[in-house]
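ok so I'm stuck.
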Amino acid sequence: MLKSLFLVSCALLNKFTTTFVRDKDFHEKVAEEIHARLDKPNMLQRRVEENRRDKKRLIWEEMNEDSALGFPELTIEGANTGRVPIEDGSEL
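replied:
not stuck anymore, here's the structure
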């Protein structure tokens, strides 16, 4: 179902929008990387489900540029491992 919706979305974008790809080689490499990861497990989803983070209620706070200082930065390595370093040296 998701794949069908994705294909329809892509077809609509291709038909009714302008080309936004400026560096075709880079975008091809990104597409190859995405394709190579299709069958890999989603470690972030697994951690969320194992820790029942999807079931817990959160209290949201408004943020601005000052409150975002020190916010963890996601790296490619972090995305690959599902681990995000935090300031105190631990991982999220």
